Structure formats: C-alpha cells, structure tokens
Amino acid sequence: MKVYCLSEDPNKPCFVIKLKSVTIMLDCGLSAHSVLNFLPLYPIPDWKPNKAAAWIPKNFSDPQIEGELNECMTNQVLVNSAPEFMTPLTKLVDFADIDVILVSNYMTMLALPFITENTGFKGVVYMTEPTLHIGKLFLEELVDFVEQSPKPNVAKYWKEILHLLPPPLCNSFKPHTWKQLYSLAQVNSSLTRVQMISYDQKIEITGALTVTAVSSGYCLGSSNWVIYLESKKLVYVSNTSTLTTHPRPMDQVNLKNADLMLLSSLTQAPAANPDSMLGELCLSVAVTLRNNGSVLIPCYPSGVVYDLFECLSSHLDSTALGQIPMYFISPVAHSSLEYSNILAEWLSQSKQNKVYFPEEPFPHAQLVKSGRLKHFKHVYTDDLWNDLRQPCVVFCGHPSLRFGDVVHFVEYWGTNPQNTIIFTEPEFPYLEALAPFQPLSMKAMHCPIDTSMNFTQANKMIKDLKPAVLILPERYAIPPNGFGHKNEFVIDQIDRKVLTIKRGEVISEKLDIKTVNVPFTTEMVVSVTLNELQSGLKASKFTAVLDTKDNKYKLDILRDDLLTNKTTEPYLLETLFKKTYEWGQLDIDRFLRALTNEGVSDPKIEHNAHGYTIHLKSEDTLIQVDDKSTHIFCEKMDKNWRLKLRSIVMECLNSF
After folding, report:
1. pTM of the full predicted structure?
2. Which residues neighbour 460 within 8 Å (Cβ) at sequence distance 6 or greater?
C-alpha cells in the first residue's frame, strides 16, 4: 500500500492511497490561508477606502510589477489581484487514475472542483447527505464572494521576485501553484459526481474492497472512514470531536483494532478550550452591547455558528439584553438555517428528541420566527439597511476578511471604539486578517473555537482504539510554534509503529494479507459431501474451477464444456481427475534423489535467508524454494521436461 500526501495543511487534508489496484482520495481540502496575501475585495464597488498605496521594491524598476503590489498602513505589502488559493498537489498523482473520493465533511471538500473538472477524473465521490448539501452552500458562498467584486487585473510577476519582497509575502509557500477560484458552473459539474451514503452503509469499490462511513461527531454528517481489504482494516480519522454539541456523537466501535490508522485534522487551537472561549465571547458581546457598541463576528455559513446562535441568545436573555437583534448575512443564509432543521437523523440524541414533541431541534428556528435573528443575502441589499438597528450582533463571512460582506462591516464599524470584532475561526491569524484595515479604532478579540479533538483527546483515542500502525502529519510529531517542548501538543509515538508524512511525500507500508475469502457457488455447495474425521471435525476434498473477475473470487463446479473441449491440455485433465492433493513444504532430499533418477547429475544448491535455490545447469533451469512457495524458471523450450519437472515437485510434497 502507498500513501500520498497532497496537502500542506493537516486541517485541509488531501491524501491518496493506492492498494490492490484501487486508487482512493481521502478528502480534498482547500487552503485559504494564501488569500491573506491579497487586498480585500469590497462588496460595494463604489465604496473602497484608500488605505493602501502602490508599492515597488527599492532600486527596482520593471513595468510588469506596476499595479501588482500595495503597501498598507502597517507597512505590510499585499497583492492587488483576485485572491488565489493553495490547492492539493497536482503532479504527484494523476487525478484521472482516482477511482473514488471519500469526503469526511463539508470543510474538507472545497477543492473538489479542482480535482474533478478538466483533469480526466472519471471516478465517484462519496459523502453523506448533510456533507453534500451544506458543502454546496459553502462552495456557492465562496464563489459568490469572489465573483461579486471582480478584479480587472491578474497579478503574476510578483511571484518571480519573491526574494525582493518583504515578509510575510516573501515567505509565501510555492505561490506558483496557487490558483484562482473555480466558477459556479464547475461547482455544479463536480457535484454531479457525488453519491450520497448513510452511516454504516457498506460501499463496494471495484470488487476489491469495501468502505464505510461512521460518525466523527464534528459537524452535521461528518464522517470517519473504515476501509476493509480482505482480512485487513484501515481507518481514516479526520475532524473528529468527542464534545457534546449538535451532531451525532463519534462512533469509536468501528474504528477499533485497525491494522492501519491515518490521522488528520486535529484542533487548530490546541491551547484554547472551546467552552472557555465561548464563555469569553458571550461576556465580551454583553459588555460591548451595554456600552452601546455593536459586535461583528466573521463566520462560515454553517457549523459553529449554530452553537453561537444558541449560546449567545441564551446569554443575552440572562443579562437582560434579549431585545438586541442578531443579523446573519450570507448569500446562503436562508438555505443554511432552513436545512439544518430537517436533518434529525444526523443530530445528537437530545436534538433528535425535540423533533418528536414536535419542536425545532435548533433554537435559531424560534429566533427567526420571533424576529430576534434576521437573515439577509448581501450587505448591499436595501432590506438590510432599512431593518438594521444598532447596537446589534452581525454574523457574516468570510473569516479571512479578504472578501464577503464582513469587509464592508469592518470598514463601516472600524472607526468606532465602542464596537468589537470577535474572531472565532482559528484558521486565520487575526492580526494578519486585520492588517489591510489598520488603523482601526474598534476592539478586536480572539476567541478561537475549534471542537476538533485536541492532542490529549487524540492520544487517549489512539490508546483505546489500538491501531497496529499509525500514520500522521509530520506537524503532529513536534510541538506547534510558540509552545516549546510541550508534549501535550504532540501525538505519542510509543506502543505502536508510527510514520509521519508531509506534503509531497509518499509512504509505502506492507499489508501482509495471508488469506482471501473465496465463496462457493450454490451448485458447488450442493456438490460437496462432508466426511467426519473426528468428533466435531468434518472435511471434504473437491475439485473446482476458481473464477476471478473484478477482483472477486468464487469456486464453481466443473462444467461439461471444459471436460469435452478438445483444446484442454491433457495435463490439465489429469489434474482435474486426480485422486490426491498436495500440501506442505518440498522434501528437498527426496527431490534431489528424484532428479538423479531422471538423469540430472549436476544440481547445485545455494542456501539463502528465505530457503534455497537449486540450479540445474545442464537443463538450464533454476528452482527457488522458500517456506510458502516454489518457483521454477526454465529456459529450456521443452514442454515434456517442464511437465516432468512439475510431476517430480508434486511427488515430493505431502499429499492426501
């Protein structure tokens, strides 16, 4: 088996595994960290504050670079162009060879159009129903954000002079591989390749193996994957949570005792406790509102934002601030709120129980009905500004602050020190996100909320699940930057074989498959007669045809057409009708005596670590013998000699 790593960020994973002639891609995450190197796209074209001046390197003059770079008030240089994203590696694996893509959750499918479109991809994409529908919302929102403020120019030349640029731009990771976003048509085309599956449903892949999705507990419809190959079990664990939130809890039972575990997507905020961060957020919101300020929370259109609606509304009620309105602004806001309330089977038990009362599983349904939570498509719609009442709380995207409606609100509210912006998504360093908007008077708070497992929880899970081999991103073997040698932020590498992998690397791991399940046909079962050898033990000897097709095997009875076919070789017929069956290891002394009786007088034996090699120089034949097999290499073009040699080998084995 081979494992390929196509992603730089473990939280935007993309792996490919090849085993038994099947090629499987595990997730296709899209890293948006690269967009921080670009100027923001303003959703209202006629309203663009001029806070960044044109910039070129000192003592450098080239007309190609003009207009490509701008310097912010913080002296940070950004690219004046449409944002570009870091996609999975394209040259390590030919996407046309991929048989299936297994998607774990809607956050790890945002590079799907880059994989399936214009690459020759002919495979199938498997994911759960919520992953498909919510992932579609994420993709549509992302395209809408970027396309609503198109840039007239495409900056390219800056990538050729990285060595002349200041940090952090000069430290950009392989910017030549970055790509501009796909179109909505490409999104829709890629989603036509998706087949929805349920938890615990067994999906057969080309007859060679079976895959099953089990709940990971991270978000609606999120999955871990179990791959069964003959007697071997492989598990892929991605974005998993043991916390009690709105999704169905994690299923650990199906992950136990795997022959190999591939781990990714642990928490991006290892030092931050989600409950503590949520508490700090609620307190900060309440303080800001009491001071007559408004709160801006950059967010994605699904996921943690549902929990924020619930917890924040409850906290505001308890602090006599229940009259404060909340606004959810996204081109997919309505669809997100509506869809989340019809996914009962994918929710935690407490959320499911509410459906049978009947009662909406999420409080935001009641918040919308009562008018406390209002949703709008865009910041530039008249309905929003006719309704907007301050102080208030606004949820909108994108968390990078490089595109989306949040860009307008940062500028609109940034000059008021009574307002607060609170960052909850740990993916983007908040100071870098704010750089193009400085100087800002509004307060900024960082409350990263990541419900994925932390390293302590992951180590406990691994200890409980007992995988024989563990493959993990290289970053998980060393403490994160700023945490020194703290071992609580690394994965333990004891009690099992551990392999690390990083972008562009390939790992080979041998799966020692000793047995293959071969079913009998119904006719074959009927034809077999069992004889009792001893109490409780029955056996039978039989002759059958082994049929192999599409990586599947079956034993069938001998058909008359095979026995009467004139082209059937005599030695094959002899084999079919023989009364004895060979087994065990070759008796070498007996074999040498038999060769001598056949006139072969020059056998030369060489011993090796696995057995021995017999060289018959006069017959131009080489025989390799080990514990499990015997291989004969005969250059002599004499069919009778080859059959005779075969008969001698068979005679020197045990038989019954």
Report:
1. 0.81
2. none
Structure tokens at 203: 């999906």
Question: CA triplet 107, 111, 115: central angle to 5 degrees?
Answer: 140
Cα-based distances in Å from 60 to 26, 74, 164? 45, 22, 9
Cα of 54 vs its chain's centroid, Å: 40
Q: Report the distance separating Cα 370 and Cα 362, nearest Å.
A: 14
Amino acid at 356: Y
User: Degrees (nearest 5) of the Cα angle 588, 590, 593?
Assistant: 110
Cα separation of 493 and 397, whole Å? 39
DSSP 474: G
Per-residue pLDDT of 438-469, as tens digits, reads: 899 999 999 999 999 999 999 999 999 999 99
Under 8 Å between Cβ of 421 and 444: yes
Whole-angstrom distance, CA of residue 254 vs CA of residue 81: 47
Q: What would the two tokens of residue 605 be?
A: 């034996």
Q: List the beta bridge partners of residue 180.
A: 84
Angle (nearest 5°) at CA 4 between 494 and 471: 10
Alpha helix (H) residue ranges in 13-161: 112-116, 129-147
Residues 416-444: tens digit of each pLDDT:
999 999 999 999 999 999 999 989 999 99
Largest Cα separation within the chain, whole Å, is: 106
| Angle formed by the axes of helices 129-147 and 184-191, nearest 10° | 170
Paired with 497 in beta bridges are 469
Question: 363 to each of 315, 371, 646, how far by Cα in Å?
Answer: 13, 12, 77
* Structure tokens that stand for 11 in this block: 């939280």
Enter the DSSP assignment of 564: H
d(C-alpha 85, C-alpha 35), whole Å? 6
- Report how far residue 410's alpha carbon sits from residue 371's, in angstroms, rounded to the nearest whole number: 25
User: How far from the centroid of its chain's Cα atoms is residue 80's Cα?
Assistant: 32
Tokens matching residue 461: 């899970």
Helix or strand or coil: residue 411?
Answer: helix
User: Is the peptide bond prior to 519 cis by the omega test (within 30 degrees of 0)?
Assistant: no
Q: Other C-beta atoms within 10 Å of 635: how many?
A: 8
